[in-house]
């Protein structure tokens, strides 16, 4: 007979509150629940009662075993209102057909074409950076990620729109970030319409301009959607919006954490610079030599382990389910957590320590489903290879040019759409000769 998942006792609740107070983030409370209640537990707040499933077995259950019964779409969530029929928020056959149509934009052949522009946009932004004075790199990295995404996916230069649409991008991210709507889904949310409309209008204009071109050009995502998949403008708008959100905020936060960690670990920063000097010299990376930057890749993987941008994944049980003897009623919100999985001492010794050697070729491979920064199964991040290439290029250009020096500014984890360092990553930059 399956039993309900455990919830926190008053004493566990108190310890969770203390942890949250001390560390200033909600994930500290979730870590406390995980340590005391195990891999399956229920959060019991008024109006918000999700079941958390943590660890490799739970991840495999969510990604593979119960994939058809654990659906993404939740009609009352703001992200569904925003993305409508976007790949991220549709399920079943509609999802699979759309995904198949969009996948060619992420093939190796395409990735190799994006690399030169990734370097170009990194350089364009980095040449404006001041030296020797405290400077927040987070918005700068967001600019680079936006320029790269819009250029690669829609063959459009975002430079002229950056200052006009910056506020709209930030506001739209705020609209889909966790907030009071989790407890009161029907709470009115004024103040976002204009920002969303501005982005909507911008994306529709790009579609319109492309359709007006006499040549049929398929070598980007937009071209594929228009000429190969023959999607209508509404569906194309939804996929473009999905890419704009899923494809830049994630790499922005991962890179911000990487920069923060390298500021704290100058020895590791030096080791990356030595690798860059020997593989690239002063030249921009190419798709072919990116694979030789293996230490840089180790550092990025370790950053994604400690600070996975998507720290919580969301599903909804379509029918009654049972996992490891626990009953999950139809309609329950079910979450998996890369953050908690990646900090489980059972799978990651000294889990809070930054140690890129965990990902060295000579180290044992992580157990299946214990390292899941990009999710897994048929919904694994569509842009995972794109993101690794992009992050390598940006960090390579940054550390070829500059040495990062940490400032004493204190940061805490912020659960927005992605896991962000707040208030930012303030560094002093020194030019490398
Ligand atoms: C470090 C960077 C990134 C991280 C950590 C990341 C992480 C993830 C994760 C965990 C999921 C699965 C969500 C779930 O299970 O509910 C996902 C899905 C997705 N990601 Fe990423 N992502 C990154 C970058 C990108 C980029 C650069 C793009 C596009 C250019 C992208 C596009 C997508 C899309 C379209 C989906 C939905 C896939 C589907 O449902 O079939 N992501 N991402």
Structure description:
50% of the residues lie in helices and 10% in strands. The protein has 433 residues and is an alpha+beta fold. The chain has two domains: 1-68 and 311-354, Uridine Diphospho-n-acetylenolpyruvylglucosamine Reductase, domain 2; 82-307 and 373-431, Cytochrome p450. The relative contact order is 0.17. Bound molecules: protoporphyrin IX containing FE.
Annotated CATH homologous superfamily of the largest domain: Cytochrome P450
- Rg from Cα: 22 Å
User: How many strands, what sense, and barrel or not for the largest sheet?
Assistant: 5 strands, mixed
Please state the structural category: alpha+beta
Number of strands: 12
Strand-helix topology:
Layout: H1 10-23, H2 26-37, E1 40-42, E2 51-53, H3 56-65, E3 70-71, H4 78-83, H5 92-102, H6 108-126, E4 135-136, H7 138-154, H8 162-176, H9 193-212, H10 221-228, H11 233-246, H12 249-264, H13 266-279, H14 287-290, H15 294-306, E5 313-317, E6 321-323, E7 326-328, E8 333-336, H16 338-342, H17 384-401, E9 402-406, E10 412-415, E11 419-422, E12 426-431
Parallel strand pairs: 2-8
Antiparallel strand pairs: 1-2, 3-5, 4-12, 5-8, 6-7, 9-12, 10-11
Helix pairs in contact: 1-2, 6-7, 6-17, 7-12, 8-9, 9-11, 12-15, 12-17, 13-15
Protoporphyrin IX containing FE is lined by residues 87-88, 99, 149, 242-243, 246-247, 250-251, 254, 309-310, 313, 373-375, 379, 381-383, 386-387.
Q: What's this model, at a glance?
A:
By secondary structure, the chain is of the alpha+beta class.
